[in-house]
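Duplicate of #3305? Posting structure anyway:
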């Protein structure tokens, strides 16, 4: 039952990627509104999951799981009935809030049910594969639903599955909670959400308003100021949302960083790739979804292949190797040229998916193995928050960079070729808008416009892929330099004691 809810959670992260053309034709959202619709789910999930993890430990993990699924179902109904872009954005944010309650509960239940290190590694490998499969098969499921019904059916799909899973959870999943209580850090929770909202908002508005506009620069400055205030507040709070000693454990701090930046690279690239499959290669939503299947398949292989490697060599080499493979895959994507076929995308997905699976299972094992069982909800929340923040920023940054480069390139190309200004103004929005415009033009103009659109899109795609490849390569180097070379499992030191006994370092494993 945990895996069913977890799959739905991952599915909702990307299921709308291939529904964008259908959604744009119906609700007419702007480019910025499209980014908010896609990113709102991960944004709220990442911004509130730390607070939700603390609540989960105290109110009950099964109860939080069930409440989160119920909230997702209710928000999905609102999304299916939305009549304006802002309503859809609000529904996606509501779904993210439900996912924030549900996600820490799944991993903390696993942490408490599987106390043997080898069994826990296998369970975490399954958790990683299911979550990755949900996120990466989103375009496939969404494509089929959109093609046979509409984008609204993507939301209706959640409702019966969520309600059945809630009922089954109360019958099959045992409850667990921490009996001792601590006050919830409300100020820390609000500040952390404001930091993320402000930062991602500035990134999304950058291509629309201009990267040097007062609104965008002010957004970045405000995000930095809020982050400084939040960090200071966490050091002074008697019950901090994110205890500083937690991040001082290198397995947690560096492991969480690796998960965040892997998600930044992979989910941003997936968003760009689905636009390429539809806007440049001309595939339908279903055809585009089918062509993303190699990515989740490779991720599942990587997750299960990484599990025995962790047992033999520890987490550091597995995380580093996974990040190197993701970087190599993105390097392949960066060699895309106009006219490149699908084979290049298959190779990218195989390498990046394999590496992402290895990084995810080893990084998750590092984070969860370094926290005592009594703080499993908080450990899970750290793991989940870093993933979702990385995913949200990946889509926002890579999508915004793509939009900026695409707009500049196609505008210059069309104007240099004497295309009328009204056509240029209609074609420089997105590659999907350009393709829709080209379909209404006579043959010579259509071919010229589509050629310019492909050239501009590939120009943007190669630069976003290079950015993501550089990020993952630098992260691999940081992991190899600062991640503990070897660590014994927490259980050896008694830190998995249900009563919350800690090791000498405060939270989990001591580096050897």
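Output from current build:
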């Amino acid at each position: 039952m945990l895996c069913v809810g977890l799959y739905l959670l991952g599915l909702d992260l990307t299921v709308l990627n291939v529904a964008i053309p259908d959604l744009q034709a119906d609700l007419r959202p702007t480019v910025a509104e499209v980014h908010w619709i896609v990113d709102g789910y991960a944004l709220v999930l990442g911004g509130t999951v730390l607070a939700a993890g603390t609540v989960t430990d105290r109110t009950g993990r099964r109860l939080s799981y069930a409440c989160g699924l119920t909230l997702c179902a209710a928000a999905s109904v609102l999304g299916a009935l939305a009549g304006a872009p802002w309503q859809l954005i609000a529904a996606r944010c509501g779904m993210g809030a439900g996912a924030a309650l549900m996600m820490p509960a799944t991993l903390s239940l696993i942490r408490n049910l599987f106390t043997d290190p080898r069994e826990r590694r296998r369970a975490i490998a399954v958790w990683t594969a299911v979550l990755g499969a949900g996120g990466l098969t989103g375009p496939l499921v969404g494509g089929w639903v959109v093609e046979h019904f509409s984008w609204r059916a993507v939301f209706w799909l959640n409702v019966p599955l969520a309600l059945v899973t809630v009922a089954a959870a109360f019958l099959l999943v045992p409850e667990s909670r921490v009996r001792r209580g601590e006050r919830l850090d409300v100020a820390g929770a609000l500040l952390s959400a404001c930091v993320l909202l402000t930062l991602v908002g500035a990134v999304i508005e950058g291509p629309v308003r201009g990267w040097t506009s007062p609104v965008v620069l002010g957004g970045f400055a405000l995000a930095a100021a809020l982050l400084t205030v939040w960090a200071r507040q966490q050091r002074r709070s008697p019950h901090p949302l994110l205890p500083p000693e937690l991040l001082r454990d290198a397995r947690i701090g560096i492991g969480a960083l690796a998960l965040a930046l892997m998600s930044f690279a992979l989910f941003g690239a997936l968003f760009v790739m689905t636009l390429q499959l539809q806007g440049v290669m001309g595939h339908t939503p279903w055809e585009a979804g089918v062509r993303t299947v190699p990515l989740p398949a490779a991720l599942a292989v990587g997750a299960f292949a990484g599990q025995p490697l962790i047992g033999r060599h520890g987490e550091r080499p597995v995380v580093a190797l996974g990040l190197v493979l993701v970087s190599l895959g993105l390097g392949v994507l960066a060699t895309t040229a106009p006219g490149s076929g699908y084979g290049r995308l298959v190779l990218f997905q195989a390498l990046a998916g394999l590496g992402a699976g290895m990084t995810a299972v080893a990084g998750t094992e590092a984070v969860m193995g370094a926290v005592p069982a009594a703080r499993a909800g908080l450990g899970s929340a750290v793991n989940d928050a870093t993933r979702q923040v990385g995913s949200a920023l990946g889509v926002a940054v890579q999508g915004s960079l793509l939009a900026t480069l695409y707009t500049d390139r196609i505008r210059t190309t069309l104007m240099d070729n004497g295309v009328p200004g009204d056509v240029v103004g209609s074609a420089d929005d997105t590659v999907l808008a350009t393709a829709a415009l080209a379909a209404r033009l006579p043959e010579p103009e259509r071919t010229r416009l589509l050629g310019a659109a492909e050239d501009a899109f590939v120009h943007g795609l190669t630069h976003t892929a290079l950015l993501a490849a550089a990020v993952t390569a630098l992260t691999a180097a940081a992991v190899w330099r600062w991640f503990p070379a070897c660590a014994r499992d927490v259980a050896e030191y008694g830190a998995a004691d249900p009563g919350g006994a800690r090791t000498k370092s405060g939270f989990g494993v001591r580096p050897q």
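Confirmed duplicate; merging threads. The chain has 21 helices and no strands. The longest helix spans residues 376-416.
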